[in-house]
Amino acid sequence: MTGTVKFHLNGQEVAVPAGLTILEAASLHGVKIPTLCHHPDQRVKANCRVCVVEVEGQKNLAASCATAVTAGMKVRTNSPRIRETVQTILELIFANHPQECLTCIRNGNCELRRLAADYGIREVKGEMACDALPLDTSTPSIVRNPNKCIKCGRCAEVCHHVQETGILYSHFRSVDVQVAPEYGKSLSDVACVLCGQCAAVCPVGAIHEKDDIARVWAALDDPAKHVVVQVAPAVRVSIAEEFGQQPGTIATGRLVAALRKLGFDRVFDTDFTADLTIMEEGHELLHRLKSGGALPLITSCSPGWVKYIEHSYPELLPHVSTCKSPQQMFGALAKTYYPDRAGIDPADIFVVSIMPCTAKKFESERPEMNSSGHRDVDAVLTTRELGRILKQAGVDFAALQDSDFDDPLGISTGAAAIFGVTGGVMEAALRTVYEVVTGQELESVEFTAVRGLQGIKEATVDLAGAPVKVAVAHGLGNARRIMNLLRAGLADYTFIEIMCCPGGCIGGGGQPYGTTDAVRRQRIEAAYRVDAGLALRKSHQNPAVAKLYEEFLRQPLSEVSHHLLHTKYRNRSLYKLKG
Ligand code: SF4
Ligand code: SF4
Ligand code: SF4
Ligand code: FES
After folding, report:
1. Distance from the CA of 23 to the center of ligand 4, in angstroms?
2. 25 within 8 A of 9, measured Cβ to Cβ
3. Is the CB of 143 under 6 A from ligand 2?
4. Would you state the pLDDT for residue 577?
5. Which residues are catalytically annotated?
6. C-beta separation of 257 from 400 below 8 A
7. Which of 101, 103, 114, 207 to mutate to test the pocket of ligand 1 (most atoms within 8 A of CB)?
8. How far apart are CA 261 and CA 396, in angstroms?
């Protein structure tokens, strides 16, 4: 629909683009209508009714999220009848909701609590009838508290229509409705990939990351522990949001300074092992091209994606790169190479990861992630948990002076900076593979064909006269479409990048609340600005990675590399879900 539509909003005539809902149109004119089930990136569900408005000529109040503006329509968003209705809806929700705000993980950013404050809810009228259902704490990543669920359906929507994993369903009817896995199963008993996209869209404390802050404090408070921290590329372009700054704010230096204030002995950078991943994965691709290994090669740095292919396409696992993710490569080196050089007993080292991702918690606990003889990674905090621990420590993030990462695991290139963006791993790999194969310097390092939020992107790259077709997918629904092509023998790609979460890690399930496509774009642009601002933009130019090979690993795909930096996968198809 094109053109503009004029309508009356609270007595004033206003013009808006045609095709908008009343909710969207009102927002354009500075009128915020309350919502709970609505999410800007999702289809209309219209089940909570807190967004009701009066439309002249209509007897019933209209759900503004589900009603299109029409020419001449007269809408009121604020009247005694509307306020009373919204208050009644909120009171009904609270009558069936645990009054645990003070101890709730969403205290401070709960959408329901904010509405209750805005609407002056001071008492819960009627009889309280809270559920006392058991919590699902079966996974290392996600906690489900069905007692706090307001049945908005946002989690099921993302799980079914974005990730297409179909784990969360609405069960039962009317007041008994529950949003949960099938047959009352726990998340560890179904093919949940622990991506946390459900948690990222939940408006309340009904699904959230498992909180590992206490374990990190215990390590930091233990004088016998040498506690090192690594930070994923996507965190530096989102952490400032936890302190009220705009999405897309680049906060690398302040992030390092904040981690020093927490008391970490060394502040390192996952970008270092992102560069290392490109060296290992790029050479794995070249090795497979030369020696006839399974092609296309598929990236392995997204743990939700790896768990998904283990559950859903186990016969395609030989295509997945054997490279551990940058998080796990870092952990393996932090327990071998680093303590060797620093003269520290690896048993005393405690590795903390700051990740945008809830599935990284699961990945760190995979039994095989201990090739150094110790757990590669001891604790994983999401960006949201980092925000909370910094607040607990009284760190004034806005006032911090920039600090630099520590050597040697803190040096990185622009290629690593874009790892957290859909298409970023592919672009970083192409920068290195092209130069290794052709022996020529790239004229432009920017492979724009693999950039952007399109669900599936394709490009063909000329490698010394040989055209190489690549594909990039983000969000598991898009991954599924590529895997179906591959399963049917219809995928003529050589290399495929898959990221579990929409937009890549910048849209991870552990990122600050409020992630929408608009926010994803801002974080993506920031990651590209970080890349463009660095002197070195190709992983093979990283001097610290070159030194690591010279002193320790010898060469990409060496025996030591294979032992420490590569891994294997398992079939988790039906009835083989655990482990
Ligand atoms: S989910 Fe929100 S309203 Fe419910 S207990 Fe937590 S903070 Fe309070
Ligand atoms: S973590 Fe991901 S796969 Fe699991 S229920 Fe949530 S959205 Fe679905
Ligand atoms: S778990 Fe959260 S997102 Fe899912 S239905 Fe309940 S309140 Fe909504
Ligand atoms: S936000 Fe409109 S019905 Fe829920």
Report:
1. 9
2. yes
3. no
4. 47
5. 281, 284, 301, 321, 360, 363, 368, 505
6. yes
7. 101
8. 10
- How many other C-beta atoms are found inside a 10 Å radius of the C-beta of residue 423? 26
Query: Residues of the chain with pLDDT > 90: what percent?
Result: 90
**Tokens coding 509:** 């399930």
**In 3-state terms, what secondary structure has residue 304?**
helix
Cα–Cα distance between 396 and 486 in angstroms, integer? 50
Please tell me the distance between residue 505's alpha carbon and the centre of ligand 1 in angstroms: 27
For residue range 307-345, list pLDDT tens digits in order: 999 999 999 999 999 999 999 999 999 999 999 999 999
Residue entry with tokens 């194969």: 437
Residues 6+ apart with CB under 8 A from 415: 274, 275, 278, 427, 428, 431, 432, 531, 537, 538, 539
Q: Is 253 in the pocket of ligand 1 (CB under 6 A)?
A: no
CA-CA distances (angstroms) from residue 227 to 140, 211, 265, 371, 377?
21, 18, 5, 19, 11
pLDDT digits (tens, 9 = 90+) for 216-230: 999 999 999 999 999
- Residues 6 or more apart from 342 whose CB is under 8 A from it? none
Say how many Å lie between the CA of residue 202 and the centre of ligand 1.
Answer: 11
> What atom of ligand 1 comes closest to residue 206's alpha carbon?
1
| For ligand 4, atom 3: residue with the closest CA | 46
C-beta atoms surrounding 29 within 10 Å? 12
Question: Ligand 3, from 45, 143, 207: best to mutate by most atoms within 8 Å of Cβ?
Answer: 207
- Output the CA 433–ligand 4 centroid distance in Å: 49
Q: What are phi and psi of 352, to 5 degrees?
A: -110, 135
Cα(490)–Cα(471) distance, integer angstroms: 13
- For residue 306, the surrounding DSSP H or E stretch is helix 303-312
SS3 354: strand
- List the one residue out of 253, 322, 274, 257 whose CA is nearest residue 505: 274
115-171 confidence digits (pLDDT tens): 999 999 988 877 777 778 999 999 999 999 999 999 999 999 999 999 999 999 887
CB contact at 8 A, 229 and 352: yes
Buried b (16+ CB within 10 A) or exposed e, 61-88: bbbbbbbebeeebebbbeeeebeebbbe
CA distance 324 to 334: 14
Read off the tokens for 178.
């529950």
Residue 138: partners with Cβ closer than 8 Å, 6 or more residues away: 186, 187, 188, 189
Q: Hey, what are 246's tokens?
A: 């705009």
The angle subtended at Cα 221 by Cα 220 and Cα 224, nearest 5°, is 85
Residues 6+ apart with CB under 8 A from 446: 427
User: Which tokens hold the place of 502?
Assistant: 């929409």
User: How far is it, in rounded angstroms, from Cα 426 to Cα 413?
Assistant: 15
Q: Is 93 exposed, middle or buried (0-12, 13-18, 19+ CB in 10 A)?
A: buried
The CA distance from 346 to 265, in Å, is 14
Closest approach atom of ligand 4 to CA 34: 1
What predicted TM-score, i.e. pTM, was given to this entire model?
0.96
